[in-house]
Amino acid sequence: MRAPSTAEPRLALAALLALCVTLALGAFVSGRPALPLDVDAAKVRGEAIPLAVFFTTLGRWPVLLLLGAAALTLAASLRTGVAAVAVILVAQLLSQGANTLLKLAFHRARPDAWLRIREVDFSYPSGHAVTAALFFLGLALLASQAPLPRPFVSLLVALLALCVIGLPWSRLALGAHYLTDVVGGFCFGLAWLCVVAVALVRLAARS
Hints:
Number of strands: 0
Number of domains: 1
Largest sheet: none
């Protein structure tokens, strides 16, 4: 059995800090008019609508299930990382449930100027931003360590990194969220990603 990793306390602290930022920002924006930075960020609304719809669709459950199955299949074929991918998928499911509870708690209304896709739930925090930080960034970190030819690894990481950026951006371009919703959601996703990392560190220590 390996010695306990010193990374675990740092990851736990990072998760706690990210969660505190999420909660503090949510408490600040809840019940208030849009902040000036929200108004400024709304200027991207209407840009590259087909691309925004594409990235938003990547954050929907049917697509995430397909991508998760593909990641599991690839990990199984490489005989490494299956447990890590599985932990990310479970965390993704749990994070969206927790995100729904936060939306109900903060009760922030969506922007009025939505495009293409009508969103009926509350606005803060953005579930797509959570997915960008937890699911896509998590898979990008795993892919960077995959035992594959480096050009393929670089391409895979670049595609996942585009999703990390594209999902939050798409919510602004479609008028579905305020910038602070996206920031809060990304921080919440990072908190979950740190928890995933702690779980993986513990799994490694037991192997």
